């Protein structure tokens, strides 16, 4: 009797294990974009929240998930985006925890998700909430040359990060609601940032620029910060390719933006690691003590180049760099745990300039910040990069399969 029960239990365990094995096989056949999106929806089951605060981290991930929704047509992904935004957007179109008076350009990014919801659903609350963010840009403090301050508490400073936080939303809003003259202002942000932050020797862009030259982290002659932070340049590149999607074809400044993008791509390819295909936390010091390949920057560069090639903004000569970079990301940073969940390692949690405690922009500072697993910015950038790679059949077919 006992032996029969033991046999039944063993058979049941075997059946369960077989079912789990089949599920894992099915998961592994899915594209990486879908598998990483499932990770997001597992970790943040109800909605994507980071300290219950309106923040750009959500916007990066949700733009990636929007791409997965467009690829698959699966309404679960759209519902997830809506649920995340509805946690903050009130029925009358206000945004919970958002304060316009902070003039923090980071807070503008999620406006892109609001525009998607408005275009699909037509609900006025999303339009009103997006318009609040558009009004912030109208009033955002500027340097005398016209560039947006990064935040109200960082006077006269422009950071590369801010271009991604503000400009793609600005361009999409302007295109949707026929603010044609806004594109002059949008172009000015990129042109000014490149003019003030680009290093002529390397072609790379410094993380920040202080117009007043008063900050302790600035070069007293140029106002530039001391180093080339990988993710900062990643933000700038993604901003360029996303803005170009909305920029009028005949606008005279479009040619200048394309020229900036081509200079940008030529520079980052020079600093792609030959062996791993990845990019380092501090871009030009790949073999310096303590430096390390960083996941979010690597994903952002792959996204920028892959989308630019697909859209015709860059030549197909960049395809080998895209494939090498993406394969390097899979090999170095992606792991599958015992439950079949995809995880992304190797993302630096944060890096900035100034503030309290003071961040001096030194090489040592950039290496001091914590590196974590499944950071929202890295995960979002990976989903974005994966969607773009999956749209390039020649690159996708040459990927490492895990």
Automatic annotation (TrEMBL):
Keyword Lipid biosynthesis: no
Key words of the record: Hydrolase, Signal
Annotated signal sequence range: 1-26
Gene Ontology biological process terms, A to Z: carbohydrate metabolic process
Keyword Lipoprotein on entry: no
GO molecular function, one term: hydrolase activity
Name this protein carries in UniProt: Unsaturated rhamnogalacturonyl hydrolase
Species of provenance: Mucilaginibacter gossypii
């Amino acid at each position: 009797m006992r032996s029969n029960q033991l046999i039944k239990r063993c058979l049941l365990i075997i059946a369960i294990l077989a079912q789990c094995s089949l599920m894992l096989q099915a998961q592994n056949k899915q594209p990486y974009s879908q598998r990483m999106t499932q990770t997001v929806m597992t970790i943040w089951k109800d909605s994507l929240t980071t300290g219950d605060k309106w923040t750009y981290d959500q916007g990066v991930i949700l733009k990636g998930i929007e791409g997965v929704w467009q690829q698959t047509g699966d309404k679960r992904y759209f519902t997830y985006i809506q649920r995340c935004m509805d946690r903050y957007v009130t029925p009358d179109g206000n945004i919970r925890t958002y304060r316009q008076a902070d003039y923090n350009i980071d807070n503008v990014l999620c406006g892109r998700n609001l525009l998607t919801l408005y275009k699909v659903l037509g609900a006025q609350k999303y339009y009103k909430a997006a318009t609040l963010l558009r009004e912030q840009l109208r009033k955002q403090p500027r340097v005398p040359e016209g560039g947006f301050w990064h935040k109200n508490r960082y006077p006269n400073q422009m950071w590369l990060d801010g271009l991604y936080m503000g400009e793609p939303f600005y361009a999409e809003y302007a295109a949707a609601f026929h603010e044609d003259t806004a594109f002059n202002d949008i172009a000015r942000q990129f042109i000014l940032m490149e003019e003030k932050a680009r290093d002529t020797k390397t072609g790379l862009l410094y993380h920040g620029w202080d117009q007043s030259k008063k900050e302790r982290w600035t070069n007293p002659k140029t106002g530039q910060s001391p180093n080339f932070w990988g993710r900062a340049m990643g933000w700038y590149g993604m901003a360029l390719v996303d803005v170009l999607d909305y920029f009028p074809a005949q606008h005279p400044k479009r040619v200048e933006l394309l020229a900036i993008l081509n200079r940008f791509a030529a520079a980052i390819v020079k600093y792609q690691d030959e062996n791993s295909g990845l990019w380092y936390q501090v871009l030009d010091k790949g073999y310096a003590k303590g430096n390390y390949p960083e996941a979010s920057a690597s994903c952002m560069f792959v996204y920028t180049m892959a989308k630019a090639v697909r859209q015709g903004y860059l030549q197909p000569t960049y395809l080998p760099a895209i494939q090498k970079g993406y394969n390097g990301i899979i090999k170095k940073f992606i792991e599958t745990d015992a439950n079949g969940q995809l995880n992304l390692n190797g993302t630096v949690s944060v890096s900035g300039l100034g503030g309290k405690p003071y961040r001096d922009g030194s090489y040592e500072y950039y290496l001091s910040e914590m590196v974590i697993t499944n950071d929202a910015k890295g995960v979002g950038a990976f989903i974005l990069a994966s969607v773009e790679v999956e749209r390039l059949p020649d690159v996708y077919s040459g990927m490492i399969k895990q």
